[in-house]
Amino acid sequence: MEEPRSAALLEHFGELADPRIDRHKEHKLIDILVIAICAILCGANDWVAVETFGKAKREWFTRFLDLAHGIPSHDTFGRVFAVLAPEALQACFLSWIQAVAQVTAGQVVAIDGKTLRHSYDRRSAKAAIHMVSAWATHNRIVLGQLKTEEKSNEITAIPALLNVLDVSGCIVTIDAMGCQKAIAEQIVEQEAEYVLALKQNHGTLYAAVVEQFEEARHTASEASTLQTYETEEQRHGRGEIRRHWTLSTPLELVQKEAWAQLRCLGMVESERHLQGEVTIEQRYYIASIPNDVKRFAHAVRAHWGIENCVHWVLDVAFREDESRVRLGHGPENFAVLRHIALNLLRQDSSTKLGIHNKRLKAGWDDAYLANLVFGHTF
Q1: How many CB atoms lie within 10 A of CB 294?
Q2: DSSP 375
Q3: Which residues are CB-neighbours of 300 under 8 A, at least 6 positions away?
Q4: Secondary element (H or E) of residue 240
Q5: What residue numbers bound the domain in which 338 lies?
Q6: Are residues 219 and 165 in the same domain?
Q7: From CA 228, how far away is CA 193, in angstroms rounded?
Q8: Which residue of 208, 234, 298, 315 has the lowest C-beta tally within 10 Å?
Q9: Which residues, 6 or more positions from 99, have their beta carbon under 8 angstroms from its beta carbon?
């Protein structure tokens, strides 16, 4: 029998190291963590809201938690998560995800970053934090996340995040910031494949790839490996035609040997129609997957799932960009709690509601919330 995901949640977070001095503890760390997760599931976006939710649901929480000293204050929540080691919370998160969700071979794992706009603190000259996350597009879950102080540091954060993930058999997709030789090599070493966005700042390689497609698309040749695939989509008054091309990487391509198992070059042309206006954008990619244009198109399209299903949802449903949590490790830890809540909501198949309305239902329906977090129904 499959282990209930909620039981695994408590099991894997129950061993989280408590940073507090023993004589100052009135509330168990697991109680603090569970109340925070439940509150965020149900719409809380700051520590005051977490405390308010906890007090409103105190009787309900006593079914599952000790609560010898009642519900912690918002100051307690803020202090605890400000000093809680993000690495420890991340380790528990990874342990939990690996126990409840198997990342299937062949699926796309999209890696991308997002800045928490209001996590900066002018008084301490603290910049807004930037979270790099990995999203399993088939499972529809966040696999892990890592903080970096600036977007430019994604180059160091991506390898560190990959180190703690099992991506074997998957296709890892990253935007141009992560198009680095060392990152491509690491992905291959971890027995995965890659599709990496290529931009003009890659200089010689970018120019060479553009030249390859210009020649292949406009010069007929029996020896050409050019493959094509087109899709069309109409949604909310906007039409988009996507034209995909792939080429087997030619032996004479400049820098070919510098990129681990570089097998394929890709190009996407997006033609968008909106209110009578037409815009056309071309994007280029390098990949270790074989020359298969439909597989390439799927990987590129799936990558946008992290924007639409994670970043956009965190902004709209969880109001992440409006969060004023700033003290210590609080912003990073709150971001992880949001990802926990998002994963729980994404994995729930008992209702066909969207994320926003699932949060509302969790706040209104004690049985639904209990099933999400504890695996119990009443």
Answers
A1: 12
A2: S
A3: 173, 195, 244, 266, 268, 285
A4: strand 238-248
A5: 5-100+327-373
A6: yes
A7: 21
A8: 234
A9: 3, 8, 11, 12
